[in-house]
Amino acid sequence: MKGKGWRKLHYLLAAVAGFFILLASGTGLILSIEPFVLHQYAVSGEIDKNLKFNELQNKLQEDFLEVFSLEKDSYGNIKIEGIGLEADGTFFLSANSGEIVEAPQPVATVFNFSRDLHRSLFLKTPGRVLMGITSFAMLFLAISGIALWLKRAGGVRGVLKSIPIIEFNRDRHAYWSRLFILPIIFIAASGLYLSIDRFAELGKESTTSSKTRPLLSDIKLKDVDAVVFPVMEEEPLIIETKSGAAHYVNGELLEFYPKATSANLRKWSFMVHTGEGSRPIALILGLSSLVLLFLTYSGFRMLPAALKKRGNSQEDIENKDLIIAVGSETGHTWRFAESLSKSLSACDIDHALIGMDQLKNCKGEKTILFLVSTYGDGEAPGNAEDFESKIQDIFAEAERLNFGVLGFGSTDYPAYCAYAKELRNQLLSIKNSREVMPYETVNNRSVSDFVEWVKGLNKSMNYQLKIDTAALNPERRKQLSSFEVLDKKEITELLFLRIDLDKSSYVRSGDLLAVYPPDENIERYYSIAIDPETKDMILLVKPTGLCSNYLASLSAGDKFEAFVKRNPSFYKPEGSVLMIANGTGIAPFLGMLTPSDSLFWGCKYRRQHDLIHSFFENQNVNITYSKEASKAHVQDLLSEEKNMIEKVLKSNGSIMICGSLSMLKGTTEVLNQIFTESGLPDIRELKKQGRILIDCY
């Protein structure tokens, strides 16, 4: 069965049996406490391992006129039915002395109530059948869960990999189910067996007899489960032990009936399912019941999104030139796609919103924006599992395919957005396909990442879309670090912050610091430099906007919460580097610049240079001021340094660009002209080679 089939089975069983599993888990949690209580109530004491049964039998003959039966429960309580010297009825005995002791305290009403509800829902036989079916459903939920779990882990080798907690219900569901999968299977299987055994009378007791079993004088009391004493002389003494039932007459073994395998299995299943007589098993059952309650809760929270039918029908999309195609496992990617769809509708842009499994036989010219998540270890999400095998057929009749891919994932997973990358490569291989929107990713459902992508979409497609960020329900990251401001310098248009950094932290120049403004859950990103000498973190901030003004309000000694986002695509490569920046885009280069590199920086005023001039000592720096005498921009500097740029690239060096998108546009025009004149590859090819790195906003 494919992953999609296992997923449907899992959802179906959860929808049908979820309420009864919730009921069974709740009552199971209460009943798991009972063994601890009954152990405290035990009155017979611990049995001496060397004490023989006939020693107790002799004591009973002294103290009772007649004894009819003896039973020993799972807690060691010895109960007899008989006629005593002063009274008759039910008595409890001390295990070692044989003296009569007080009866255990009665079981609390809550346990009896929970037991009846757990076993039969107070419906007697129909209820027992229903709870048996619930055990069956829970067993197959566990099996289908294992199949989905293996798919998520990328196979058996990945089952022990840690599960990053990105989405609470989904990831905690996977985490706790993996941790308790064996107890859950045992609970479900034992419950199912006990239900079947009750109605089908599995494995009747063996009638095979044997005369090779122990003598009466050899039987130890600790091995005895029950005894039926003879009333008439010709009746046998029947002693039941773990191995079977022995019949004795006048102290001699008459017959032995071995206990059937099914009886042992029944007893084992009962102990595993109830924890009777075993506090460790009861503890595991209690914890498993708690986990099952959480799994049921989190499953119900995820179920509506999993079962919700989204997107347009096939008839609706045939005449649409613009399509948003969504590949999603848990439904979170749909939230972003629906937000994009609302923005398009608000601008009267005709389009269709569909799942990737709804894409069929595209004809004519289509523009398709793929918003796709990655499942597990680089796998396709649930509604895109078959897309790869059908992609050529889907677009076989398309005259032109214009596309863009936006990947959703988490950098906490090694295969970050792996499926989105694979999908992009497949689309590029299609005849007459053209990528109209650069490939981007959204990390941890970041609203700010998504908004930046929409801004790029506006430029590429000449749209004017505005995203309602509140509708995306942004969540503030739970694990934030505290950072302290060590030093602050500022001028009107530039703020310099030196921030204390744990020296054991592996943070590099080029990484990003994500900061939340007060009372907002959408983070803002700032490029990081690590001071080569002090190893402090350096931020350069333009004090405009809510978050930047918040940082500007801080003073030395103040602390704020944020988190570091790794940005390996903008780490300094080996060899000499030509660095190009404008404004605060110079920030990461303050921690990268060495005498073998060259820096071109465009800023507005000389005072901005003066604020950070100490980082430029003994460095090859070229600066222009757009608001002073020269009124030149950084691309103007580049056009005068054709030989230097050519030399860097021909010596296997690299170019890094950081700053505004408007600067990037002017810079790439100049660079492309230089590359053409020098016989060098164009920017697109150099980016593929990893020799031009860009981080612009």
From TrEMBL:
PANTHER family: NADPH--CYTOCHROME P450 REDUCTASE (PTHR19384:SF17), NITRIC OXIDE SYNTHASE-RELATED (PTHR19384). Residues 478-573 form the FAD-binding FR-type domain. Pfam families: Flavodoxin_1, PepSY_TM. InterPro entries: FAD-bd_FR_type, Flavdoxin-like, Flavodoxin/NO_synth, Flavoprotein-like_sf, FNR_nucleotide-bd, PepSY-ass_TM, Riboflavin_synthase-like_b-brl. Keywords: Flavoprotein, Membrane, Transmembrane, Transmembrane helix. The keyword rRNA-binding does not apply. It comes from the Bacteria. This is NADPH--hemoprotein reductase. Its EC number is 1.6.2.4. The chain crosses the membrane at residues 12-33, 129-150, 175-196, 281-300. The lineage of its organism: Bacteria, Pseudomonadati, Bacteroidota, Cytophagia, Cytophagales. GO terms for cellular component: cytosol. GO terms for molecular function: flavin adenine dinucleotide binding; FMN binding; NADPH-hemoprotein reductase activity. Residues 322-458 form the Flavodoxin-like domain.
